[in-house]
Amino acid sequence: MRILVTGGAGFIGSHAALRLLDEGHDVIVVDNLFRGHQGAIQSLAACGGPRFRFAQGSICDGEFLSDVFARERPDAVMHFAALAYVGESVERPVDYYRTNVVGGITLLRAMRGANVRRIVFSSTCATYGEPNPGTTGIAESTAQAPVNPYGETKLCFERLLRAACRSTEAPPLAAVALRYFNVVGCDAKGRLGEDHRPETHLVPIALEVALGKRSHVALFGTDWPTADGTCVRDYVHVEDLIEAHLLALGALGTGEFRSGKFLAWNVGTGRGHSVREVLDACRRVTGHPIPTKEAPRRAGDPPVLFADARAIERDLGFHPKKPALETAIADLWRWMQAHPRGYA
Length: 344
Ligand code: UDP
Fold this sequence. Notes:
The protein is α/β, with parallel strands linked by helices. Helix content is 40%, strand content 17%.
């Protein structure tokens, strides 16, 4: 197939593009390189040869997108391009709505113009807000009540996809939203890594301490209502997350999806790890003491988030192959040691 991947120079989008190339598909990456990396594009070009194409531009630019669709005639879209920092979304909601919602609408219009009717959308557990996960985790049926503009924009686009799938447009749209929990690790072969500017995520920050680029990890709150006082999250290996995208894409062409439908699944492991547990895993992998300093709680952090991951297993047969946190950390650690300056 020919798959158009928006945001394919970013962390998750580049891993999706790489896996699609590994599977023998043609991949067209659309990315404006605002947060994405030229280095990721170079790796993809080296892996994909003529099956890989890169179109630099914005998903908010309808003419640009129409040209790309007309030229490349993709069979389906994987949509990752987005602004994705919670704190920044509070500061710059207009930019977040423009990129994540207006950009999504522009993409859907270009898809309609080119008669492309299949899309897998990168959504997030941030659409749930601050739910009570109980003992079984957050299920897809949990009310979606985001508590920041980032989560709002992702939910807004999910709702638009749902409406578009229900519409009478012919042929109908078929869409899947995958609601990610925390994503860690990188390509085990070291062809791609994780490099956010600025870096705010726990695991890369801990590994930057082990590399000597930072002195310590700030513990954002040690008085949360959890077993060890730190927040609990569900960490899924990026390779497993991408596997879920391939399963979703495969389902979109078949059975009940053929006639157009919107479905959403969580992607997680179903298991939570506290910040202290994550740091201990980083210490085991790196052999570095990774010092910490207690710091105030970070605004907007829910204490406990982990997925009820049973639906995607039941419906698509998805099962994480790398559920151990150490595996993901070790994959990223190798890449960061080989690329101490990231993609720079
Ligand atoms: N965290 C922390 N120190 C850091 C970065 C993150 O204590 O320097 C905590 C954060 O408060 C959260 C967890 O680690 O409870 C995971 O944060 P991350 O930013 O990696 O992902 P999020 O869950 O916010 O998407």
